[in-house]
Amino acid sequence: LFLLFFSTHEELKTLDVDDVFFSTPEDIAARALKPQGGVNFIRTFKKQTEDQAVNLPPNLPELVQNASYVQSPDHLVWRYFYDLKGSAEYPFPGGVFQWARYRINGTGLNETEKIFSESLNKHENTLTLATLRIFSNGLGQPHFHFNANEMGYVISGCGKVGVVASDITANFNIDIGDVIFFPVGSQHYIKSVCDEDLLLILAYSTGSQLETLRMNDYFHKTADHILAQLFFKEQNEFKKIPIP
């Protein structure tokens, strides 16, 4: 079972090998592939009624005798593969975050992570992927991303989500199999409300280092006298908010 994310804001367009093949004239395919039997061999291919991108033939064991392949060298594998489950954990009050990410200059990354990070940055409209585990009754505090849309899929648990965008505020429940979306610049939070942990896979659409600002950060980075004016509250009251 695979969970796939695609970095496009337009309708996804895909061409499968069989679709392209059957859209190519027989004589052109024969001249390109040069099979034994020529065009007569090409004519033995029959287009299936079902899309073969999602359906396997019922007689697959009869058709495939050898499915082995040669593993590519590590310096190539690490450009396209990242062991997220085995990567470093980043704990926060209420949960744990693991991340296949891009970092400027590879800061804080090991050698394999640097190769993967450099590969991410070479491609336009790339994605970075993460897992977010929020412990029971834990909170992923309100925050927003300056440079990325965020999409998530719920693996286990259940929770509550809030989104504050420029023109709307929304709060709703999430459960296993649900997909959530946070547009760039929208503040959002996720809270676990089940006895078990809430586990999500998250994707961020950015080809650069993800830029995030959390509620406790922007409260502390705003002068107390400004907060006093905004909230009609005595300036020294904001000293009660602990520094992270």
Automatic annotation (TrEMBL):
GO terms for cellular component: Golgi apparatus; plasma membrane. InterPro entries: Cupin_1, Dynactin-associated, RmlC-like_jellyroll, RmlC_Cupin_sf. SUPFAM superfamilies: RmlC-like cupins. Pfam families: Cupin_1. It comes from the Eukaryota. This is GL25 protein. Gene3D superfamilies: Jelly Rolls. Residues 107-239 form the Cupin type-1 domain.
